[in-house]
Amino acid sequence: MGLKKIALVGGGQIGGVLAQLAAMRELGDVVMVDIKENLPQGKLLDIAEAARIDGFDSSLVGSNDYSAIKDADVVIVTAGLPRKPGMDRSDLMSVNAKIMTAVANGVRDNAPNAIVIIISNPLDAMVTLFQKISGFPKNRVMGQAGVLDSARFSAFLAWELNVSVKDVNAMVLGGHGDTMVPLLRYANVNGIPVTTLLERKYKGDKAKAAEVLEAIVNRTRKAGGEVVGLLGNGSAFYSPASAAITMTEAIIKNQRRILPVAAYLTGEFGIDGYYIGVPAILGENGVEEVVGFDLDEKETAALKVSLDAVKGNLAFMAELGF
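Below the sequence we write its predicted structure tokens.
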């Protein structure tokens, strides 16, 4: 039985890390497509030449033609203009909507049975546009955001509590941006509520614990911008790629992992007809099932604010003719 085929559309920083991680984990053979001549060829040749060192047998091929992704099992899309310092995700809309339209046509015509993971921003709008243009079943098109945002939230909690991040369980819902919804009630360290541990650290001072937790929430919401500001030129690339590879592995290996992804909702959480970040079971068919559960009044209100932001992006995209 041959390896699965993983196609990467976009040869930038994220694309390069995706290719390396997919090869090193031997998730499948990798092909990268980018419009810049020789870029994907050179990047994948470089990674392929490390096969003996890193111990993998995956094939890696770069191309400037969509025909190279023929019959891919999973397609990960990173193509688009990266966010720059001071640039809001909505500022990217006009340019990236044009790029996503071309990508959707290319994937539809060459890999009609693929499961597609979108990383390009503004994330929720780009996922929606890809599905609309491609006509793919909604369960086979999803966005990577929640896995990354939840990982960032978990890391910040672990650093504050001085515990291993491996033991932190935390999830973020909603759109990928400043309106995301970290679920404070459910955040825990091996079952112990984070709020309990923070109050313990601050010797029963609930006000101080709440203040620290709110600061962590705000840092989580602005984590992408923090990286952009530090880099000065470009945006996060290792962590988004790692998150997308986790999703890819769950799909290829039919792991049925519950991961927060931008999935299409049909009534779950009281939302119908929109892509937004929610927990979903990922398996061989893509989004196998959205995992709905009850939110309290505050969480419901926050998710509505996030949905309104997604709707705003979609309305703006429609004004631009997409």
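The chain has a mean pLDDT of 95.
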